[in-house]
Design goal:
Layout (H helix, E strand, L loop, with lengths): L1 E5 L4 H5 L2 H10 L4 E6 L4 H5 L6 E4 H6 L2 H9 L5 E3 L5 H9 L4 E5 L3 H6 L2 E3 L10 H5 L29 H4 L7 E6 L11 H10 L5 E5 L3 H11 L7 E2 L6 H10 L2 E4 L3 H9 L2 E6 L7 H4 L6 E5 L10 H8 L5
Parallel strand pairs: 1-2, 1-4, 2-3, 4-5, 5-6, 7-8, 7-10, 8-9, 10-11, 11-12
Helix pairs in contact: 5-6, 10-15, 12-13
Length: about 325
């Protein structure tokens, strides 16, 4: 059987899709799983054994409209799970005549374009996003959710890093990554708070490394220039596949609700996510899931209630 899952949004969303795919492969031996996703998230899929094939959403949608369904049909998909609900994807699967099309009752267009339904309203649910994915398995006869979802990320493939980055881990210190920005997708902890935290961390115990994208590197430059010399800035220097490998080698990571916090949790390292306390962005819905994952949450829509001392109290107990 060939099953297609859809997740055409951000890096963290794709990471949180891996457990349901990994569980599917365990419950249905021999199943082939593909994902319809954006090209910039492909490195996440390539790192995992939970998904067999990547289908480029942007490539499909760039085709002439009369060719898109035929292209999707060429993959010979038996079932589609609409993990993300988009009208154009629902119509595409319908036109491609995928035999089993599983969607949510809450989307009226699914009433016509899908033929199996589950009751699910994500915006009002207190369940975690990764758990909600498992609801879509019910029409396949799978009604259980594993206790340790993080065992199904299946991140087993990591690219080799250039020596200049690998050498940063040649230390007895606890290597902690600070990833300050979220590309505007979630509330961000004030940059001054990161400065206070760095000042509290014992240089003889912690090796501190700042990560971020090329764009974020430019945004952060005025702040980066003020940091102590022992803080290492590698913002804008890693591709996504390299960042995944880099995070895997680290001991811990601190970030807001953004892709790297989910990558860190999936890699099994110490992870601390910083979250607002209100729906729909709260940690109960979007927090990191992993054996060593933790979060701090405010009582409002911003992160200003979280102090540097709060974060320090969490990470001071982390061990290599």
């Amino acid at each position: 059987m060939h099953i297609l899952v859809t997740r055409v949004d951000a890096i963290g969303d794709v990471v949180l899709t891996l457990p349901v795919c990994g569980y599917l492969k365990e419950m249905m031996p021999g199943v082939q799983i593909s994902i319809l996703a954006r090209n910039y998230t492909k490195a996440v899929v390539d790192a995992s054994d939970a998904i067999d094939h990547f289908i480029d959403y942007e490539y499909i949608t760039a085709l002439p409209e009369n060719e898109r369904a035929a292209r999707l049909a060429s993959y010979k998909i038996d079932a589609i799970l609409h993990l993300v609900t988009q009208k154009n994807i629902s119509l595409l699967a319908f036109n491609a005549k995928i035999p089993l099309r599983i969607g949510t009752v809450s989307r009226p267009y699914h009433w016509v374009q899908c033929n199996r339904f589950v009751w699910l309203r994500r915006k009002v649910s207190d369940k975690h996003e990764a758990e909600l994915h498992f609801r879509l398995l019910r029409p396949l006869g799978i009604k259980t959710i594993p206790d340790r979802i993080w065992e199904y990320y299946k991140l087993n493939h990591f690219v080799e890093l250039p020596n200049e980055f690998t050498d940063l881990f040649n230390t007895e210190k606890f290597t902690v990554i600070i990833h300050p920005k979220t590309h505007g997708n979630a509330p961000e902890w004030a940059i001054e708070n990161f400065s206070k935290l760095i000042a509290m961390l014992d240089e003889s115990r912690f090796r501190i490394i700042i990560t971020g994208s090329q764009k974020e590197s430019q945004e952060l430059k005025p702040w980066l220039d003020t940091l102590p010399r022992h803080v290492i800035d590698i913002t804008g220097q890693l591709s996504l596949d390299e960042l995944i490998s880099f995070i895997k080698k680290a001991d811990g990571l601190i970030a807001g609700s953004t892709g790297p916090v989910h990558i860190a949790a999936a890699c099994g390292i110490h992870t601390l996510g910083l979250y607002p306390g209100l729906r729909p962005k709260h940690a109960g819905r979007w927090g990191p899931i992993g054996a060593k994952a933790q979060y701090l949450e405010t009582g409002n829509e911003m992160l200003d209630d979280i102090t540097a001392q709060d974060v320090y109290n969490k990470i001071n107990n982390w061990k290599k």
